[in-house]
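Here is an idea for our session: we take a single protein and study its fold together. To get us started, please write out a protein record for me. Once you have written the record down, we can walk along the chain together.
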Amino acid sequence: MAPNTRKCSNTETSRRPTGPTGLTGEITTMSQEQNSQKRRVLLVDDDKIIRLKATKMLEQCGCEVSTAENGWDAVTQLDDCKPDLILLDITMEPLDGFKTLTLIRASKGDFKDTPVVMLSSHDDVFTMGKSKDRGCSAYLEKPLDMEALKAVLKEFLSIQVAV
C-alpha cells in the first residue's frame, strides 16, 4: 500500500485531495469504485428452495452469491469465496448455525470479523440472544423480506439498493 493511504472496504483511497475538487473528488471516486465492485455474500441454508429464493434476491441487489447447504460446507468455502457478508441459517445438520458461527469467529484468518447475519424462523428472544452471544452481527427472520434484506446490505456492505 502506498504511503499516506489506508485500506477501506476493499479499496485503497488516498487521504490527499485529488485535484481541484479536493475532498469531494476523493469521495466521489471511492463511491464509484465501491459501486462497481460486486459484494460477495455466502448464503448458508439447508433448504434448497430458500437458497434459490435468497440467491435471486441477493443477485437482484447486485451481490455475487456463493451458497452452502450446511455449516461444514460453509467453513470449507470461506477461503475460496472470501465473503464480505455471511447469511447463516441457525437450524441445520450436521453443524448448526451456532457452531458454525463459533468456528468462524474463532478463525485466525480474514473471516473472524466478517459480518454474520443469522437466519431463522424462530423470532424468540432466547434464540436472538444466543445468536448475539456467539458473535452474530444481526438477525433476520425467515421467510426473508426484500426490504429487511436491503437494510442489512446497506448496513453491513454500505450499498444502496433500488429494486
